[in-house]
Each structure stands twice: as C-alpha cells, then as structure tokens.
Amino acid sequence: MKVEARGIRKVFNRRVIFRDVSFSLEEGKVLLVTGRNGSGKSTLVKIVSHVLSPTAGSVTFTDGGGPVKGAVARHLGLVSPYLQLYDEFTASEHLDMAMTLRGLRPDPAGADALLERVGLFPRRNDPVRTYSSGMKQRLKYAFALLHRPAVLLLDEPMSNLDAEGIGMVRGVMDEQRAAGILVVATNDLTDLERYDERVDLNGGKP
User: CB 8: neighbour CB atoms within 10 A?
Assistant: First the structure.
C-alpha cells in the first residue's frame, strides 16, 4: 500500500486553509501532521481519508503498483474527535454494526478480544451514554482497528485518555508502524516522537 498527496490545497469561504501539501508514504512509514488550532489538521485528515475533497491537488492510494480498486474506506481506520457514536447502543452493538457496514462476517469472539484490548470488555453491554469521554475515545479505537486497516489515521490520538489509555494507543501506533501506514495529526509533539515525514501547517509561523 502507498499513499501519495500532491499539491493539496483547501479553501473555505475564500480563506485558504493550507496549500501545496505533498507527501508520499509506503508501508512501515509514519506521517506527523502538526499545526496550531485552526491550522487545518483535521481538514487534511478528512481529505486523506476521502471524507472531504481538496480544492486542488490529489490524494491517491495504490496497492501492488496499481490504483486501489473500490472504496478507499475499506483500507482505512480513523480515530477523530468529530466521529459520532450512538448513545443508545452498547459497545458490542457498535462493533456489530461496524462489521455489517463493512461487509464483514460476524465475529463475536474477535470483537470481544478487541474490546478487551481497548479496556472496554467489562462495559461492553452498557449503553454508550453511560461512558466517560475517555471510554468513548477507546471505543473509537476499536472501531478503527476492527478490519485491520492498511492505513490508520489518528486525529488528536491521546484526547481524553488517562495514562493507561495513552499506553494502549502507543501500543497501537507501534503495531501499525510495523504492519502498515500511520498518520498522526496533533499539536502535542509528545504524542509522537518518531516519524518519517512531517507536514507543518503553521506556514512557518510559531
């Protein structure tokens, strides 16, 4: 798998959010996206994940030397503050729904193992409305990892997490670095200390 961005520019309401963003990532590579609040980190993540279209430029996914066929989303996992959960569903129901939407065969044992990994197994049958913000963040990781994505995109990855949750995320990052492509967008440089490429959206400003 390879992800390549060429000359990405995004404009909202005549305001240029960023311009001329380019990078190339292959398996085993990590991209760090930095910038102050409002610099466009989340916007860039949405463009890479094909949730938004760029005003100019392109993001292409290739696999085995040719373009990825079908929906790119099948190869992506995304964790972000703007992702919404259903308060009336339990964690297990969320994962069942995600498997159905992705066309995956039901795997209750695999879903339980994933909930155990993110620290939610004891609360798997409780409605999400009873979860803390940190527990909801953990569930988003379960969502993102359910289909073993080739490309994992993390927007503010440590948001609302305690020390144990941060440790879990660092483990996820290490595994993704070894098995696929990792993109991390954050304004806290302690979130990611090792990376191969960096896109700084501050435009040279502090």
Answer: 23
